[in-house]
Amino acid sequence: MDITVNREHLLPILNKVVGVVERRQTLPILGNLLVSADEGEVSIVGTDLEIEIRASSEAKITESGQVTIPARKLSDICRSLGEGADIRLKVTGDRCVLTAERGRYVLGTLPAADFPSVEAQPAEEILTVEESTLKRLLEKTGFAMAQQDVRYYLNGLLLQVQKEVLRAVATDGHRLAAFECACSLGLSESRSVIIPFKTVNELRRQLGLSSASVQVEIGERLIRFLVGRTVTTSKLVDGRYPEYERVIPTGLSKVAYANKDALKRALSRTAILSNEKYRGVRLVFEPNLLRLVAHNPEQEEAVEEMELVYVGDPTTIGFNVAYLSDLLNAVDSDSVEVRFEDGNSSSLWRGKDATAETYVVMPMRL
What we know:
Helix content is about 15%, strand content about 45%. By secondary structure, the chain is of the alpha+beta class. The chain folds into 3 domains: about 1-115, DNA Polymerase III, subunit A, domain 2 (DNA Polymerase III, Chain A, domain 2, Roll), CATH 3.10.150; about 125-245, Roll (DNA Polymerase III, Chain A, domain 2); about 250-360, DNA Polymerase III, subunit A, domain 2 (DNA Polymerase III, Chain A, domain 2, Roll), CATH 3.10.150. The radius of gyration is 24 Å and the shape is elongated.
């Protein structure tokens, strides 16, 4: 294989692919990227056996071929080169020689034939979604996923595909995020799948806010996202997602409205003196006043007050400040609506008049 490709073409596709490569692998070849060159195009693939990302770009092909190259080393070298540099990759035996500008780098390789690929499966459903819509759906909910929960089905995001609605739900057992958007998907029947934690985060990182179309192919055990010249294929989480509607509280009699940015700043300051392990902050709702209180084992205390719209009995609720900060970052409205009952019940949060989003946060004992 002998190719020449400009840094401004190679680096973007490397950045899309390299994130899927784990720093510690069970198999040495999983630390490599599969580089294929043919017919004026270079294609790069990275995988961890659960998710595979393939991205391609134009290149000058002197000799076509395939090889696997260490992912981090290739990415770091290309990133450190000057803008507009032409990069030549030439494979001789079990070595790949990278030359660019006045530098020459010799990298070890492994056979392309040994590179694993995610098993291809036929798509049972194919739908088209606007890129910005899909990104918004994941950003609004992905932060609430569990990471290493023994309830493995929580280590992912529930995607519900219906005829006219696309809904995403995530929960870690202490909080829940749900968001839906109207989409004319034209499916014959509804479908629900659980997308793994890592796949969701890779998509959140890669997707943009353009109006370009994303093709989503859903199979029995796989899901595939085609965005331009990038293809992301992932295994699905095999499990039954809990009936999340049951944990969304209804009939909450108390409602308050607060300025989102003012609340975020107050939480950030108060959290400085919270317990570093539990990150608890007490919110005291009083008529037109919100008091935030935090303590720590060193007997330090933070108290902050801010205005809000609330008419009702004084109510005190303890919260994990990280949970509130995460949901406030996902809210678009300038004002946030909080519905609650007492200090022992879950509360419901959303942007004012933003009925498409639902955030449930369980209280903490402080």
